[in-house]
Amino acid sequence: MAGSTGRDTIEGKDEVKDAGEQPPADRITPTDHAARHEGFESEAEYRAYLDAVAEDAPVEEIVVDVERAASRAELERQIEDVRYEIDNLRARLHIIRHQAGNVVEENIRWADASAHAQLGDHPWLKLSTAMAAAFLVGKALQSLPFGPFTTALAPLLLAVARERGR
User: Using CA atoms, how far apart are residues 65 and 71, in angstroms rounded to an integer?
Assistant: First the structure.
């Protein structure tokens, strides 16, 4: 087809019309059927038309289209690679979240077991009772007048410290 000229095509077309030959119904090819479907009398006429159109088609546009198709295919491949990496990262993130949840659960179990080992049954109740008692004792000590008491005891404490230092 590429080696054909427009003149050959027209001559081929004329030959087919002049010959007036139609292939028998049992020898009709799919291309011949497609040519008739497109409105051409025969496959030769159809090929002649395609050759004429091919001569008029600018080659530069075809090359650009091929380059665009190649760059588009490359772009689609890169997009597919990025999608694969995103899926991979999502799977890894899911595993990390699961492992982090397991670590938190294990730390809670360890703290509970440690409290039971040190304080026996109901360790959190015992611990909160001890904290409340420490708070109440601290409040009671704040209300005592320690200023005059420490002023009276300061000379006695200094005397004891001197005796030990000798």
Answer: 10
Residue 27 and residue 58: Cα distance in Å, rounded? Answer: 36
With beta carbons less than 8 A apart as the criterion, state whether 118 and 110 touch: no
At 60-101, the pLDDT tens digits run 666 666 677 778 888 888 889 999 999 999 999 999 999 999
DSSP character for 62?
H
- pTM of the full structure: 0.34
Crossing angle of helices 30-37 and 43-56, rounded to 10°: 70
Q: Which residues contact 119 (CB under 8 A, 6 or more apart)?
A: 126, 127
To the nearest 10°, report the CA torsion of 57, 33, 38, 62: -20
Contact present, 115 and 124 (Cβ < 8 Å):
yes
